[in-house]
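Query structure, 389 tokens:
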């Protein structure tokens, strides 16, 4: 059996607050590693040109869950995941030269689910008016029991959705960010998924959305780059990520473990300048995509079940993407949007605030910076990173 060949060390991952002005060492306490040797990884190679992943957000709040995390927030989070996993993080140009050649371009595409677990039309979000905090790592109590779209038992089952439970307090902390099981622990069971603080992802959050990317990295089998260590140099079992320490959270830390420069840009670090996965991390995530514990997510039957089959198989999304022309990029504040008959275009800054919108073939916004242009056409959403000089 595959499982017997794996080295199982620990099983739960947590991540606390990771704002740039807070030393994450105060919460960096539960760092677990599940090593899959490269020889094993290569036995489950990629079989898909694209792995389509249905996502559902379950939002919990005692007074007004709808206002805490909107459909726009959800789509923005999905767009950022898609950019981050495909090597298109907004700061990818700032990655140190040593690591630029090994930036992973994973062929994963995350989608808001369009059907719920009963087969009814759905926008990808459930709202739950409950005053429940996020479970602590290792426990699976209220949130996951109350609202759960997957099947199976605690350990072991079938993944139909990547589930993300959102609430206001995680790990006993109003500013705790989130945690996820590794697939080796949940074994595809219904507790698999991410418990996350909606304040770290919604429209009022300013730094970035990289912590959700970090948690999805755990969901797909990645450990922290500093492995199980806390104060000493630790290994994550990945060949192309240098051995490092948890304390390497500053953005430029040099060679602190005599194993080369620290990859502070890695999403699986605790730094405030994350922008990439490495190729070997991508190889490990794809191994888990192909593994029984995650492979149902992207199966054709499941894409039909979750309502995203039409998008992915009819190619309508791709057709719209191919027709769409956005230029110039960079621009000086006038962006032309052509090729689509009907659409709505919205421009968001990197903090997720909408700064402009239009239904016309040009959008004007002359404040220099990096933005995300979100175009909605025929019920499909296309996001593009644009630069304004
Ligand atoms: Zn983590």
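Result returned for the query:
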């Amino acid at each position: 059996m595959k499982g017997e060949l794996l080295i199982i060390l620990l099983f739960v991952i947590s991540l606390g607050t990771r704002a740039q002005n807070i030393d994450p060492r105060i919460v960096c306490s539960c760092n677990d590693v599940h090593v899959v040797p490269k020889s094993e990884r290569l036995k489950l190679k990629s079989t898909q040109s694209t792995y389509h992943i249905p996502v559902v957000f379950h939002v919990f709040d005692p007074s007004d869950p709808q206002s805490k995390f909107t459909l726009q927030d959800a789509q923005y989070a999905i767009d950022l995941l898609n950019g981050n996993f495909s090597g298109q993080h907004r700061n990818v140009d700032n990655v140190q030269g040593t690591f630029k050649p090994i930036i992973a371009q994973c062929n994963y595409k995350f989608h808001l689910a369009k059907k719920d677990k009963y087969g009814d039309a759905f926008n990808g979000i459930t709202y739950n008016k409950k005053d429940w905090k996020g479970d602590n790592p290792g426990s699976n109590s209220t949130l996951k029991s109350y609202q759960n779209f997957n099947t199976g038992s605690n350990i072991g089952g079938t993944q139909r959705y990547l589930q993300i439970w959102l609430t206001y307090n995680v790990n006993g902390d109003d500013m705790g960010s989130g945690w996820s099981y590794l697939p080796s622990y949940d074994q595809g069971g219904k507790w698999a998924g991410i418990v996350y603080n909606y304040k770290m992802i919604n429209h009022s959050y300013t730094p970035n959305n990289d912590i959700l990317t970090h948690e999805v990295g755990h969901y797909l089998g990645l450990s922290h780059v500093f492995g199980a260590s806390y104060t000493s140099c630790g290994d994550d079992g990945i060949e192309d990520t240098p051995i490092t320490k948890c304390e390497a959270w500053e953005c430029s830390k040099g060679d602190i473990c005599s194993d080369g420069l620290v990859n502070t840009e890695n999403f699986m670090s605790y730094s405030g300048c994350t922008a990439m996965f490495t190729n070997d991390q991508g190889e490990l995530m794809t191994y888990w995509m192909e593994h029984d514990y995650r492979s149902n997510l992207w199966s054709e039957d499941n894409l039909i079940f979750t309502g995203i089959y039409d998008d992915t198989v009819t190619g309508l999304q791709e057709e719209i993407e191919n027709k769409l022309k956005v230029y110039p990029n960079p621009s000086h504040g006038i962006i032309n949007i052509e090729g689509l008959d009907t659409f709505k275009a919205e421009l968001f800054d990197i903090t997720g605030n909408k700064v402009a919108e239009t239904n016309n073939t040009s959008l004007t916004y002359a404040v220099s910076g990096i933005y995300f242009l979100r175009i909605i056409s025929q019920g499909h959403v296309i996001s593009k990173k644009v630069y304004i000089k």
